[in-house]
Amino acid sequence: MTLLKKLQWSIGLLLFFFVLPVIAGQLPFNKQASTPIKQPEDKQVVFAATNLEEESELEKTKEQTPESTSEQTKEQDPFKVLLLFTHSQEAYQPMVKAASGKVAVYDDKTNIYNLQDAISKHFSMNGIQTDVLDVDVMKVMKSEGKTFPQAYNTVRPYLSSRLQEQSYNLIIDLHRDSAKRDATTTMYNNQSYARIAIVVGAEHKNYRWNTAYAESLSAAMNDIVPKVSRGVISKSGDNVDGRYNQDLAKEMILIELGGIDNTEDELNRTIAVIGKAIAKTFVTESKS
């Protein structure tokens, strides 16, 4: 090899080693250049995981807090009313006449007991859950040969059994008053309403509790429709029951819904008022 060729080969070799690092930096197997930077994503994942752990601990704390559990229970549990009809075949003359052409204040088909669906509907519209003590008391009395004054003793075991099985926020025994139209009807905003009266037996230990419930409901109804409630009537002494099974529950009242001359429309308007008054007086307070 000539001296010139040796010199050219040496220069070429030097140039190769000089540019090799530059060439190597552009090749795909350089790990430092090809590895993606994921630090921001990794930090976000860790942050999210931390938040989940904190939320989990917070939920556990909420579950363990009595006040929180109590508030959830109040929101979940509906206000429950039990309806019963001790004088189940008490009737309204206009309704009986429209249904059968008869003039009667007692009827085995068209009677106050048949109003239970209308009552449940209006109560439901006001957030009230309604159960019915499903027993035609006067039918049972006839089959057992019992007289009218024995009605409260006849229904008592049915009511007592139900109250042992379930609890209620309010218990209403619904009746029809025997008074005539002028005493059981009122006008408000050009519409007629069946008036109610609330009866409380004064010869038992729950008397004051029952009276408090009755007075609160009566006042709330009159706030909605003036004079729709005739007030609370306390009964004791000779020739009256004196307890009306209200000794079985502090939350029990007896409502005389209209009288023998009231129409179905008048009754429905008043039933709607009862539902609103219960919601205003008891449901709102029980959730506050």
Describe this structure in words.
With 288 residues, the chain is of the alpha/beta class. The protein folds into two domains: 3-67, no CATH class; 78-287, Aminopeptidase (3-Layer(aba) Sandwich). The chain is 52% helix and 17% strand. The protein is built from eleven helices and eight strands. The protein has helices spanning 3-25, 31-34, 39-64, 66-76, 93-100, 116-125, 137-144, 151-165, 181-184, 207-224, 264-287; strands at residues 79-84, 128-132, 170-177, 185-188, 191-194, 196-201, 229-235, 252-259. A six-stranded mixed β-sheet has the order 2-1-3-8-6-7. A two-stranded antiparallel sheet has the order 4-5. β4 and β5 form a beta hairpin.
Concise account of the structure shown:
This protein has helices at about 5-25, 30-35, 40-65, 65-75, 95-100, 115-125, 135-145, 150-165, 180-185, 205-225, 265-285, and strands at about 80-85, 130, 170-175, 185-190, 190-195, 195-200, 230-235, 250-260. It is an alpha/beta fold and about 290 residues long.
